[in-house]
Amino acid sequence: MNWLSLSFAQPFLLWGLLALPVIWWLLRLTPPRPQMETFPPLKILARVIKREETPHKSPWWLTLLRLLLAALVILALADPVLNPRERAASGSPALAIVIDNGWASAADWDERVATAARLIDDARADAQPVVLALTAEEQNQEIGPFDADTALERLNAARPRPVPVNRPAIYGRVAAALEDFPGAAVAILSDGLASTGDEAAFNQLFSGNPGEVLWATPDRLRMTAATDAQNTAEAFEVTATRAAGDAAPRQVVAYASDDKGRRIAETTIAFGPGETRAKGAMRVPFELRNDFVSVGIEGENQAAGLRVLDENTKRRRIGLLSQSEADQAQPLLSPLYYIRRALSPYADLVEPSSAELTEAIPELLARKPAVIVMADIGTLPEAARRSIIDWVNGGGTLVRFAGPRLAAAENDEDLLPVRLRLGERSLGGALSWTEPQSVADFPNNGPFSDLAPPREVVVNRQVLAEPSPDIVERSWANLADGTPLVTGVQRGQGQVVLFHVTPEATWSTLPISGSFVEMLRRIVQLSRNQGTINEANAEGGKALAPYRMISADGLLVPPSPEAEPLANDSPAVTLKNPPGLYGSEEGVVAHNLLRPDAELTPLGRPEAPAPVTAIRYGLDEQQPLKGPLFAAALALLALDSLAVLWLGGRLRRRPKMARTAATLLAVALALGIGGPDMARAQDERAGEADAIEAISKTRIAYVVTGLASLDATSRAGMAGLSQFLADKTALEPGEPAGINIATDELAFYPLIYWPIDPAAPMPSEEAVARIDAYMQSGGTVLFDTRDQYSAGFGADATSPATLRLREILSGLNVPPLEPVPEDHVLTKSFFILPEFPGRYRGSPLWVEASLNAPTRTDRPVRVGDGVTPIMITGNDLAGAWAIDEGGRPLLPTVPNDPLQRLHAFRAGVNIMMYMLTGNYKSDQVHVPILLERLGQ
Amino acid sequence: MAKIGAVSPPVASSDALVRARARAAFLPDLLVEARRVANNVIAGWHGRRKRGIGENFWQFRPYVEGEAVARIDWRRSARDEHLYVRDREWEAAHTVWLWADPSPSMLYRSQLAPTSKEARAMVLILALAELLSRSGERIGWPGVTDPFSARNGAERLAAQLMHAAQQPQRPDLIQVRRFSDVVLAGDFLDPVEETIGWLDQLARRGARAHLIEVADPAEEGFPYFGRTEFTDPESGEKLTAGRAETLAGEYRRLYLARREELSSWCKRLGWSYTVHHTDRPSSQALVAVHLAMSAEAGYAMEGSL
User: Fold this and answer.
1) If you ran DSSP here, which 8-state letter would residue A293 be given?
2) Nearest to A120, CA basis, from A112, A208, A9
3) Peptide bond before A145: cis, by omega within 30 degrees of 0?
4) Which residues of B touch A34 (CB under 8 A)?
5) Reduced to 3 states, what is the DSSP secondary structure of residue B243?
6) B240:A53 CB<8 A
7) Which residues of A fall within a CB distance of 8 Å from B109?
8) Which side of chain B, N or C, has fewer Cβ within a 10 Å radius?
9) DSSP string covering A424-444
């Protein structure tokens, strides 16, 4: 469409733009209002301003700004709309909408529905009948014509399907329905992918001579399909295919899920430029790989993005059996050497630990191999033979190689596909007329039918099969003279395969040819791990019930009622056989949407006999621009105001105001355009600066309760105590820190003063838990109920503050408490204090009880380690400490006694010293004695 | 936004009664202020012919019978057998005419100054009146009161002013005689030629004039920015400047040139010209004016003797 899809709801208002020159002229004439100033020396000034200030002209840029403002307002009034909805298909007798709802449409189905809904809306406006057809639905779907409402209902009921589209059939029906409406408009909402029979389908569709063709196709085919999954030796390989039109390099992530939908492996698949097919390998242990039920492409919410796996992709375990342990020095003569080399990339090889068949075979069978390869084993012990036969009947594949032992052994009906003649046949050689034989073309009925025959292989010696009626049927490979080289037969659910040559290169060159690998691999592919069913089982005509289906958006879901059992001869993906797993828990067959060699070819625009209008998919993108334009005009208005202020000199005279305005402008600009700048400051952790500030000085903390007056008092109190400390002691505390216990880091502060006020909100449980942790890790909280004189009298008198304190303490691990005893370190840590008054006097200071500390009469201080984590007082310490900026006390003490305030400060010093030095002071009492002993 | 300058009392200039009432209302305050300033200045004063502490000795003369015994200077008399009387400095009452510009432009006060020009001029004049009358000079206000001598000269002058009718823009200097001093406080913002024109009669009469130019800092500094419309408080004329800040340099030059011209003219006549800014303490101007008057007093005395 046009590059600027802009339209106006009220275009006549744009004539208002013609008024712009008038506005320009007016603006030029109208100067900004001057400031009025009285000025006595006007006569002197008049000599400076010689000329009369004739109509002052606004500066050109201000005029421009205002013109722009006016233009924006006019434009906004005209109600412009960006990306307006184009109205197509008007004036046709009818509208046919053909929507591809195959798997490729699922990803952006909403857009397609929106597009179709717009078309239907337009048809409603024109009262056109609507034919609505979905190409992935059944051919007998009802396609109308409908009226617009019904069509919309049907459209909303339509869902994408996990199957390919069937354009020929549906287009045919649409063409038939349009026969009554010659010249109808046809809207083709395609999924952008070509399918078979497209050209014929389009021809059929356009046969009714539509009046107009609306063609919608996705802008880009972004879908990526998982088209193949192969279990190789090292890794599980996933092949992804993307549409041919998608040429940019891309990376997708493929994942594998188990049967519970858990994602158990992932890999990245990288498409090179122009590549449509790429592989990724999941290098995970094969046990894990065998758990894979589906592989998918991440982010692909369509059916082809998911591929279900069955037994075919699982790595087989192959048991190897041989009786002649070759000389280790001559590995090339080992019977299993070539088998091992051929199979190890494709399967997991299991070899028994002992050569004894009675032990080796049970050991192998215990590993439940899919295939057992027996290299030249003649006779099996009976028990082992029975278990092998059971295993084969249960689905195992037994591959046997001939050799001298087998040639000498008796025939075994069960474990050989054909009856063998005794002895071997030698071709060529000194005593023979015959020439060594080459291999003929593989017969068509065998599993090797599509392999290239190994012309270079010659066979010198083989075991011969007894001719029998079914020998041809059982022959999978023949020599040039028609004698079978490889024979195989179905036994029970398994099969028995015999190579009529040795597995090493003594009888033939087959083991050293490439075909040997191919043939073995094919056999392995045909095999099943134990306990499973295989497709051969379905050959009997038994259809497999749907088990897990792939939904249209690429998820494994239980089967829908529509899904029918998968018949063996219907490999096509249809609505009746949607992609998914068929079978049962016992074993499943994967029915995948795309074949491994499938390609996603973009669909070209068909040649139509009518004008073709391309429309876009998309949700309703029309965007009214009225609001943004008005916002821009408003911003310009703000700029204009600033400019007028600046012109009037009013910003200059008030530098502060100018700075404010400049800051505001800068912030606005930064918010508007400075997005990347914001990311720059990410190195610093949040709150780092605070933390550094908190620990670079000792700071006394107080709890911010949220009550302004209380917090101010606390802050002033801590400031007063800090100042007193700085005056009297070596400690110079930093600024008091008001902390929010719910969010701030508490560990930085030695003491936290917590004034309790019942009016303050109760701290949250988390906050209390943080306080608890702080106390446990060595911090001290000084609770101050400040209710010494308001608590009432009597032993059990409580104030609301005390009740609140009890509430808080109920969430804390509070140790046993006692009032500070006379010989407590607190009483002597700096000043010698008998009590700890604040604004009030009399409330004891409660600390952790030092019950265990022995009281000794010869020591003035009770010994004891640790610092009490909690102190409780009711004396309003902060109130006594609080000072204003001038250092004068803020609140009077009760009674108003300067000495009491001094004592309060001393109490604070003692508490602080006790916090910082712990029980150090209790040791200091020894100093005089020590000095005495030193003779000083 | 507030303006830089304003005309302080919002009085209709035609309403004489209102005007007078306003002036009467603020005169007592100014009087108090003037006394305070005068007291500040008087302590540092020298060379005044005034009885009391620090009075100047003039001569000893022999005691004449009939004089008050108290006037005998016993200390001098003790040195020989005559009795001496200490004569004080010769004192002749001097007439000083005081005048403050009453024009509306004097009502101007900018934000940079604490007071209006008129108030400051009045303070200065009243302070001078106080000083002069304390030292016994005769003070008068042209058109309001004849020269009088009184101890409470400032108070009386203020009382006279309070009851005076509206004063003309320029003083009636007809009464000024030779050898009198005239102290004129005003802004002298009229064109220099006009100012010189009406002051010339003083020069011709041989009076000594002391001009105190009371200037508002905003008038001298011109702190205006941006588009500004200036109004003359006297004539009501308006003038608009597109970008006032660009005019500042030129304006200042003219402003100072006017002052310079007036000042040099005064100097030529032997008059003093004191510039006082209303944001400075008024005592500064008072000291300066008084020094100028004292210096001239000596000169004038020489001339008169």
Assistant:
1) -
2) A112
3) yes
4) 226-229, 240-241
5) coil
6) yes
7) none
8) C
9) EEE-SSTT-SSPPEEB-PPPT
CA angle B109, B111, B112 (to 5 degrees): 95
Helices marked H in B146-281 — which ranges? 153-163, 192-205, 217-221, 248-269
Q: CA B2, CA A300: separation in Å to the nearest integer?
A: 68
| CATH code of the domain containing A174 | 3.40.50.410
Say which range, A494-508, B128-142, B198-212, has the weakest mean pLDDT.
B128-142
Q: Are A615 and A719 contained in the same domain?
A: no
Contact B89, B52 (CB under 8 A): no
The sign of the CA dihedral A646, A652, A654, A659 is positive
Q: Which pLDDT belongs to residue B78?
A: 92
Residue A532 is predicted with a pLDDT of: 37
Tell me the residue range of the domain where B286 lies: 5-47+93-304
Domain shared by B80 and B142, yes or no: no
Full domain range(s) for residue A918: 690-924
Cα(B301)–Cα(B305) distance, integer angstroms: 6
Integer Cα distance of A868 and A871 in angstroms:
7
Query: CA torsion sign, A428 to A434 to A440 to A446?
Result: negative
Quick one: B179 and B199 in the same domain? Answer: yes
CA distance A36 to chain B (A): 5
Q: How far does A27 lie from chain B, in Å, by closest CA?
A: 16
Cα of A55 vs its chain's centroid, Å: 67
CA–CA dist A625, A72 (Å, integer): 11
List the one residue out of B252, B254, B187 whose CA is nearest residue B214.
B187
| DSSP bridge pairs for A624 | A81
Amino acid at A797: A
Let me know if A285 is exposed, middle or buried by CB neighbors in 10 A (0-12, 13-18, 19+): exposed
Residues of A in contact with B1 (CB under 8 A): 35, 650, 653-654
Residue whose token pair is 């073995």:
A520
Give the tens place of pLDDT for each residue, A142-176: 777 888 888 888 888 888 888 888 888 888 888 88
E-strand ranges in B79-137 read: 84-88, 95-100, 108-110
Question: Which one of A480, A496, A528 terminates a domain?
Answer: A528
Let me know: does B184 contact B203? Beta carbons within 8 Å. Answer: no
Selected residue of A44, A50, A53 to mutate for chain B interface (largest B Cβ count, 10 A): A44
Query: pLDDT for A857-910, tens place per residue?
Result: 555 555 556 788 888 988 888 888 998 888 888 888 888 888 899 999 999 998
Residue with the two structure tokens 């010093």:
A909
CA A168, A173, A176: angle at the middle one, nearest 5?
125
Q: How far is A220 from chain B (nearest CA, A)?
A: 60
Rg (CA), chain A: 47
Residue B52 lies in a domain: no
Q: Please identify, among A503, A528, A553, the residue that sits at the C-terminal boundary of a domain.
A: A528
- Confidence check: pLDDT of A765 > 80: yes
| Highest mean pLDDT out of A37-51, A528-542, A889-903 | A889-903
Do residues A159 and A101 touch, judged by C-beta distance below 8 A? yes
| CB of A605 less than 8 A from some CB of B | no
Under a CB-based contact definition with an 8 Å cutoff, are residues B118 and B27 in contact?
no
Summarize pLDDT for A482-502 with one digit per residue, the tens. Answer: 888 888 888 877 888 888 888
Task: Give chain A's domain count.
Answer: 3
The residues with which A870 forms a beta bridge, in sequence order, are A781
Alpha carbons within 13 A on the beta-carbon side of A13? 15
For residues B180 and B118, membership in a common domain is answered with yes
Q: Would you give the DSSP letter of residue A172?
A: H
Q: How far apart are CA A719 and CA A282, in angstroms?
A: 66
Among A66, A49, A35, A52, smallest CA distance to A646 is for A35
- DSSP class of residue B64? -
Helix axes A708-728, A898-917, angle to 10 degrees: 80
